[in-house]
Structures are given as structure tokens and as C-alpha cells.
Amino acid sequence: MKKNIAEIIDVSNEIYDKGLVSGKSGNISARFGNVVAITPTLKSLSKLCEEDIVLVDMEGNVLTKGKPSSEVNMHLEIYKKRSDVNAIVHTHSPYATGFAFSNKNLKRLEGFGPIVTPYLQSIDYEKPGSDELAKSASEGLGNEDVLILKNHGVICVSDSLKEAMLLAVFVEETAKTQFITFMLNSAEDID
Question: Distance (Å, rounded) from C-alpha 157 to C-alpha 161?
């Protein structure tokens, strides 16, 4: 379990350093059987230590010291609906979250499997930490690996933390590319 907790800390540091979260935003979890290790509430993901990671069971009962992320119920609901998911990375990355706050859909690009639908799945806004968000996000993911939370952020899921993190990075780069494309297409030609 120590190795798994160390990986959560490494991924937390990496997504903070890459600018996918800032301040005390975002959260990460990993499932190990019937136990979920999750980042704490109201702490920056930039400098977590082993004692900061909170272990909970699948009913949300806290098994260690500390207070889990306020989004713990969302993570648990996703795990309950998706036996193939063992890692969740929830970011507020600037470009992808910009799309979440806009009326633009984020196109699905090649890089993480075949393009089955043209846009990344999104759900309407629900209050962060609410049971409504937990239910809506777990249902909205369906069989997808990315979910845009309108007016909130992004969820990436995978069977491993590293893959979920790489997906979060890819989604942010996709959003950045599309933003630049929109800006270039809307700029007047200069001769």
C-alpha cells in the first residue's frame, strides 16, 4: 500500500507542476480492492506526504486519520459503477475548464483510442461535493474515460494512475490546441 500511496503523491505533484490544478483544487484517488486512497480536502496537491492520503472503504467510512476530498462520494460512485476503473484524476486545468465554462464542446482527438463520438462527454453543473454531482458524474461517464463537468472541471479515469494522469494531460493539450484554433480562425487576416 505504501508504494500505491507514493504513486498518488507523485501524480499529485506532477499534475500540480504541469498546471492542471492550482491552489487547493483537484483530487486524485486509486482503488485497491475494497479500499480507496484519496487526496485530502483543503490541501494543495503540490506537496502532499504519506500521512495526508486518506483511506476510505467503498461506503465512504474513513479508515485513517485525515479528511478525504470533498469529492470522495463522486469517486466512490464512479468506482461502484465501473469495475474497470482503478484510478481517477479530477483537474481544473485552465484550457479544458475554459471549455467547461463556455458553450463550446471539446472535440475528441486521436491519441487515446478510436474516435467513436466527435466530442468529449459532458454533464450539466452540479454543486461540487454534492450527492447530485456524484450521481450525475458516475452516470455521465458511462463507458467513457473523460468527462467534462460543466462550470467545474474534468474527470479522467483509467485502470492506473499513470494512465489517468496522461489522459488528463492529453485533454488539456487538446483543449489548448482547439482554443488556439478558435482564436486563429476568428482573427482577421493581416496582409
Answer: 8
Identity of the amino acid at 85 = V
Q: What is the 3-state secondary structure (H, E, C) of 140-181?
A: HHCCCCEEEECCCEEEEEECCHHHHHHHHHHHHHHHHHHHHH
Given 7, 14, 51, 71, which residue is catalytic? 71
pTM value is 0.94
Q: How do residues 96-121 score in pLDDT, each as one tens digit?
A: 999 999 999 999 888 767 788 899 99
**Top-level class of domain 2-186:** alpha beta
Cα-atom radius of gyration of the chain, to the nearest Å?
17
pLDDT in tens, 123-137: 999 999 999 999 999
- Vertex 62, ends 156 and 66: CA angle to 5°? 85
Asked if 71 is an active-site residue, the reply is: yes
